[in-house]
Amino acid sequence: MASIHNTIIIGSGPAGYTASIYLARALLNPVQICGILQGGELMNTTEVENFPSYPDGIQGPELIYRMQRQTEKFGTTLIYENVINIDTSTFPFTVTTHNNNTYKTKSVIIATGSEAKWLGLKNEEKIKGDGLSTCATCDAYFYMNKNVLCIGGGDSAMEEAIFLSKYCKSVTVINRSNKYRASKIILQKAQNIPNISFVSNTIVKEWIINENGLSGVLVKNVVNDNEECIKCDGVFLAIGHTPNTKFLNDSIKLDKDGYILTTLNTMTSVDGIFVCGDVSSLEKNYKQAITASGSGCKAALDCEKWLELNNSN
Ligand code: NDP
């Protein structure tokens, strides 16, 4: 008979690794299903300067490799497969991966994160992390006294623009329509900041790059079809995130944006299944490596306690 694991952690960003480090140190022999491509959003990040204990900064992928080494040291089993289903209808739960491997487990921690949306334009891959960012909190500092664009018209775009305005010489918010999804109060706040300006009804058509990276964007006004090049030193995309929850196939309750809802602390709508990191509805407004790690720790402690109370070996 296939062995029944105490816990399976799904995901390999800071939330997943922190959860597995805690559960391995609690001698629960966790299994972590990392995905085929491990590491999540940090693998697309260059310098991370705000993760405490790295005063000189650290590259995003290096931070992930260190977390991986740390959890391996304590005995976590790492599996590089993509989860396609969790059967919650029977206990123990059955986790199925893309190559039809199945794993039985008494508990699950979901730490699958969310993905920032990108525009998918030509040359985008070349400038990711080098002129093009999806995180002002992470990268604004690198654009001190520079001119940047912020794409989007929702709450995130306004928050990003306000944050950027403290560092940058100018911030131009480019919205594809003249309707802003952002709440009035945050929109007004952004509109009242002198170095933030707004361009409506405008889409980005092309990234303009030279040997130093991004130098501007070609935009088009969707009302009169006029095109123009806007010079800039950097672009921040804030056009939304997609939580990685498709594989749940409606087995767990989600909020209206697709993030996993919690009941008590980090417990999901299914007893014995926990959530942490950016995919959790509790965390969706933070999206920082350190907050993901913190929530991974909380989910591990909740899971450990739950196993103590419910574990019949
Ligand atoms: P939203 O979905 O609210 O807004 C996305 C914005 O990006 C919209 O203006 C949308 O335009 C635009 N957009 C989407 N796709 C494209 C594209 N391909 N090209 C150009 N523009 C595009 O996402 P947010 O991340 O802003 O917010 C997500 C949720 O999180 C919301 O519920 C928000 O209220 C919440 N939030 C709350 C915060 C807070 O309370 N402090 C802070 C940040 C977020 P269009 O309108 O035309 O579709």
Count every helix, treating DSSP H or I runs of 4 or more residues as helices.
7
CATH topology annotation of the largest domain: FAD/NAD(P)-binding domain
| Helix coverage percent | 10-25%
Supply the CATH architecture of the largest domain: 3-Layer(bba) Sandwich
In round numbers, the mean pLDDT is 95
Number of strands: 19
**Could you tell me the strand content as a percent range?**
25-35%
List the helices and strands and how they pair.
Blueprint: E1 4-10, H1 14-25, E2 31-33, E3 47-48, E4 58-59, H2 60-73, E5 77-79, E6 83-87, E7 93-97, E8 102-110, E9 114-116, H3 124-127, E10 132-133, H4 136-139, E11 147-151, H5 155-165, E12 170-174, H6 184-191, E13 196-199, E14 202-210, E15 213-221, E16 227-231, E17 234-237, E18 241-243, E19 273-275, H7 289-310
Parallel strand pairs: 1-2, 1-8, 2-5, 8-19, 10-17, 11-12, 11-17, 12-13
Antiparallel strand pairs: 3-4, 6-7, 7-8, 9-18, 14-15, 15-16
Bound molecules: NADPH dihydro-nicotinamide-adenine-dinucleotide phosphate.
The site of NADPH dihydro-nicotinamide-adenine-dinucleotide phosphate has 19 residues, from helix 5.
